[in-house]
Amino acid sequence: xxxxxxxxxxxxxxxLSAYKTDETGKDSEAEALARCExxxxxxxxxxxxxxxxxxxxxxxxxxxxxxxxxxxTVKHVLFGLNPQGVVVTSFKAPTPTELAHDFLWRVHPHxxxxxxxxxxxxxxxxxxxxxxxxxxxxxxxTEARYEHIRAFEALLSSRGTRIVKLYLHVSKNEQKERLQExxxxxxxxxxxxxxxxxxRDLWDDYTLAYxxxxxxxxxxxxxxxxxxxxxxxxxxxxxxQILEETLEDMDPQFPEPDFDPAKVEIR
Amino acid sequence: xxxxxxxxxxxxxxxLSAYKTDETGKDSEAEALARCExxxxxxxxxxxxxxxxxxxxxxxxxxxxxxxxxxxTVKHVLFGLNPQGVVVTSFKAPTPTELAHDFLWRVHPHxxxxxxxxxxxxxxxxxxxxxxxxxxxxxxxTEARYEHIRAFEALLSSRGTRIVKLYLHVSKNEQKERLQExxxxxxxxxxxxxxxxxxRDLWDDYTLAYxxxxxxxxxxxxxxxxxxxxxxxxxxxxxxQILEETLEDMDPQFPEPDFDPAKVEIR
Lengths: 267, 267
What we know:
The structure is a homodimer.
Chain A: H1 29-53, E1 57-64, H2 70-77, E2 86-90, H3 96-99, E3 117-121, H4 130-133, H5 139-158, E4 161-169, H6 172-184, H7 196-201, H8 203-217, E5 224-228, H9 232-250
Parallel strand pairs in A: 1-3, 1-4, 2-3, 4-5
Helix pairs in contact in A: 1-9, 2-9
């Protein structure tokens, strides 16, 4: 699978409508599942090296519409990793205290320490999406925030943090089916939020806001990927591959000891 | 397996020497591994209910000597859980800022929110162990800290946090073998810390300090367990069972919706 195809170029020419939501690639579901299972031990080994090395870190930013598959992605793609080396932060609607600060204030403390992986389930990007769609900020403030985000991500990058940003791309119909499933299955109803229906009515506004934000903030060190996400198995396989390639490119190494292990005697 | 046998009674009569470090129970290693694998999906299902319910939380406190198996326990026992619902915090030697506060100050922010599981890899108990063994605090201060810990854990308990405290019990010889393995295996040498050898020389002092701390702080709502931990597979199986029983006893439930799902229409 060629992951480059899904990476948003820096040129700012992204057209979301050019990406299919229901793509499945060339392989069958069974093949993709087998590959995901094999990949699990590779990712765990790379994670251990990252942790042992203690120099670089990986930040995964997950954005999607409601029922777009963020929780499922966290569950499946991180399955089998050592929880000691991964911190997942879910960003909800900001509190009054958070709103009394700049929009990156609540995000910064949760960026990954050296050796760690962090996942943002929603992120600072909400502040150029939901705020914009609801008219809480105008074009000028939106542009200013893009600039703040670029600078912020450059800061993280300067300290060894690799950033991978994933937009889970689902169709309006797929969202409907998933929301309906939450209503129908008593074990999923707790995930249903009546307010989500209002956001659904703003579907096209969100499409433009996502497209615009990704155009403005995709960079070599912090690329956006558009992940076709109607089919969960394809989504998981593609994201798994992106993470594997990213970690391999980071190439973490077990550190050399600063003493001679052969000379240590344990009594 | 009867987990009660490993639970430290409130009576304060614990004798650590009465616990074997190399216990293996009645079942074979193969049987224990099979049971651990089966248990994984049960634990994941219980975790999902805990998260969905959003009322109770679970705090797992892990204490052990160096190379006692804390990291391995985190990796194996939490394997397969949803990282979104688990936060692991490793407490290192306190920083100057942390030392400028009471000893629970740095711990409190990491206690689990409702719906979450938290693991403390080392914990506030270090402040009645390493400090005591090295003579940084005397008997009076030690007793005072036990009282502070009991009150702190009662506070967490009052807010719905169940606390399970695990002491991984290994023999001095098993520690030697594990430390030697870290020296011999280049992929493990990064875990070796020369300073650990000094702590090893204080073996018996630590035994008494652990015994005393567990006697003073084991309670019905925050029990200590002595986990025979020379055999990792036995350790993992026993801890897995304790967690399963604890979560079953907490009995989290999917919440009832405060609306009628049948009346919601998605356009």
